[in-house]
Design a protein that fits this description.
Elements: H1 7-18, H2 22-28, H3 35-54
Helix pairs in contact: 1-3
Amino acid sequence: MSEKINANDIMKLEIAEELGLMDKVNASGWKSLTAKESGRIGGILARRKKKEQME
């Protein structure tokens, strides 16, 4: 079962890379992130999406 990757997924991966979390995600999956790490990704994602909508 392959899932389609959408723009949000790409942005989420980019943010995780910027925060230095991709090694952890690749090793153990998204569930291995702490609530703080996930929240940080979500917050940045929301800000970027809002900024895109305003442009």
